[in-house]
Structures are given as structure tokens and as C-alpha cells.
Write a structure and sequence with these properties.
This protein has about 290 residues and is of the alpha/beta class. It has two domains: about 40-165, 60s Ribosomal Protein L30, Chain: A; about 180-290, OmpA-like domain (60s Ribosomal Protein L30, Chain: A, 2-Layer Sandwich). It is built from seven helices and nine strands. It has helices spanning about 1-25, 75-90, 115-130, 170-175, 200-215, 235-255, 280-285; strands at about 45-50, 55-60, 95-100, 140-145, 155-160, 180-185, 220-225, 260-265, 285-290. It has a five-stranded mixed β-sheet. A four-stranded mixed β-sheet has the order 6-9-7-8. Strand 1 (about 45-50) and strand 2 form a beta hairpin. It is globular.
Length: about 290
């Protein structure tokens, strides 16, 4: 009986091996199941608006990985950019405002000359439009930090009609360009209600580039414009904007810039956002650098 059981076990092992060999090695049916590629589903809620009027709609939203400024483009994204570019070329009196969003966990992240990921992401989209021959001066940038991590709408597109009778100052009120020759930095470089200039990494990088740029042409000049929010009196804010611009001027002089530097204060007179939240107030408390 013992030999029978032993023989039966040996037979079972042999049968199992034989079955495996036939199915896997001969028929090749033991390959692992292919991993199905997960297709990213994006909401088709991307639109272009002019006030309450919807100009374009039904496109997939853009997408950015965590801490990344490179958009993950789809065919729908490319089509939207092509259609938007064609619309802007047909309406040369209309400008575009791009608002880039960032996650709460991305707060404090800086990329190059930009103080936050929202601005850097908006700039990446602007670059795609520049490649489609849209004038850089027609595109202004803005940013907004989300409370949570859901970045379902990372870029907002909004048209802004600029009548011919607008002055240069009125055009500036419509947003900040954030270009090398017209760059803006928030009051993160100053303590609140202070004129002590403590430049951050992005501003220092920008200042070094400006020094090189101005050093190549002594006829070029720099204009520094100080802005504030609406807290305090108008007189106080005019003075604060001037003192902040002067502090920034001193920094550039100490850096070795010898070109002419003009200082202007706009105080609270040219807000780029309503003075209704701390984030919006910080957008208004800014210093603008214009290269001429």
C-alpha cells in the first residue's frame, strides 16, 4: 500500500509537469495578461470666454504633473490652441489673459524667473501661442493658488478687448505681461508695509540677466514702478510704492548697473486684481521692471 501511494504521488507530479509543459511551452498559453494602458480621461470643459460670452467650448482641459510646468498635450489641446490662435489673428484688437493654477502642495515652488508654478504654467501655454505667431504683448499672465490638490482646470483663458483709445497705463491695468522687458514681482520681496528690499531667488536671477542686458547697450534704461494694495491712505501708498521702487533701484546700482534708472510710484491706483482677498492684495503689492 505504501508503494502504491508513493507511486501515485510521483504520477501526479509527472502529470502536473507534463500538463504545464504542454500548455506553457508548446501552446504558449501561460504568458501574463497584458497590462491595459490606463487612458487619462479629462473633462471637456475647456473654454474661451469674453466676460459672460463663450467664444470656444467643448475642448479637453490641459494637464500638468505634480511640480511640473510642461503641459501633457492631447489632440484636443492642440486643436484648441490652433483655433484660439486663428481667432486672435482675426480679432487683432482683442488681447488674451492666461491664468495658471497651482496645487496647495506646490506652494513656494519657483521656476526660473517666475515666482510660482501658476505663472510658469501660464507662460508655457503662452510659448505655444507664440509658436503660432501670436504677439507676446497681446498675452498677459495671472496666477491663482488652489486650496486643495484637484487641478482639473490648470489654465483659464479669457479675452480682453483693448479699445484703441486706451492709454498705455490703462492697458497695464488689464494684467501683467511677465516678459523679460516688462517683468513684475510680488511683494514677497518685501515685508508687509515695509520698503526693505529682500529679493528672492527668482528676482535675483532676473536682476543678473538685466545687468548683462543693459551692459551690452548704454542707451538702454530701466524703469521701476512701485504698486500697493488699497490698505491705508492714498498718500501713504504713494509714498510706500516710491520707497519700494527706490530700494529696488539701489539693489540694481549695487549690482553694478550704470544705465539710467527711473523710479515711479503708482501707489494703489493701478490694481490688477480686486483688493478683496489676501492673495489678490499680494498681486497688487508689486514692483514692475520695464526695460526701454
Amino acid at each position: 500500500m505504501r508503494y502504491f501511494i508513493l507511486g501515485f504521488l510521483v504520477f501526479c507530479l509527472w502529470a502536473s509537469f507534463a500538463r504545464w509543459y504542454y500548455v506553457c511551452e508548446i501552446k504558449h498559453r501561460c504568458a501574463p495578461e497584458p497590462v491595459k494602458e490606463q487612458v487619462e480621461v479629462r473633462p471637456k470643459t475647456l473654454s474661451l470666454k469674453e466676460g459672460d460670452k463663450v467664444i470656444l467650448s467643448g475642448f479637453e482641459q490641459f494637464a500638468f504633473d505634480q511640480n511640473s510646468i510642461t503641459p501633457k498635450l492631447t489632440e484636443s489641446n492642440q486643436l484648441f490652441l490652433d483655433t484660439l490662435s486663428a481667432y486672435l489673428k482675426l480679432h487683432p484688437n482683442k488681447n488674451l489673459k492666461l491664468t495658471g493654477f497651482s496645487r496647495n502642495s506646490e506652494k513656494g515652488k519657483r521656476i526660473g524667473l517666475f515666482e510660482n508654478l501658476g505663472l510658469a504654467r501660464a507662460n508655457e501655454i503662452r510659448s505655444l501661442l507664440l509658436n503660432r505667431n501670436i504677439d507676446e504683448e497681446r498675452i498677459n499672465l495671472d496666477h491663482h493658488a488652489l486650496i486643495g490638490e484637484n487641478l482639473l482646470k490648470p489654465i483659464n483663458f479669457e479675452l480682453d478687448t483693448q479699445p484703441d483709445e486706451y492709454s498705455d497705463d490703462q492697458r497695464l491695468n488689464k494684467g501683467n505681461q511677465y516678459t523679460f522687458t516688462n517683468m513684475t514681482f510680488s511683494d514677497a520681496n518685501f515685508a508687509k508695509d515695509s520698503d526693505e528690499f529682500i529679493p528672492g531667488e527668482s528676482l535675483m536671477l532676473y536682476a543678473d540677466s538685466v545687468k548683462v542686458y543693459l551692459g551690452l547697450d548704454e542707451t538702454k534704461s530701466l524703469t521701476i514702478i512701485g504698486h500697493t494694495d488699497s490698505d491705508g491712505s492714498n498718500e501713504h501708498n504713494q509714498d510706500l510704492g516710491k520707497r519700494r521702487a527706490l530700494a529696488a533701484k539701489e539693489y540694481f546700482i549695487n549690482l553694478g548697473v550704470t544705465n539710467p534708472i527711473e523710479v515711479i510710484s503708482k501707489g494703489e491706483d493701478e490694481p490688477t486684481a480686486p483688493n478683496d482677498t489676501e492673495e489678490n492684495k499680494q498681486k497688487n503689492r508689486r514692483v514692475n521692471f520695464k526695460l526701454d
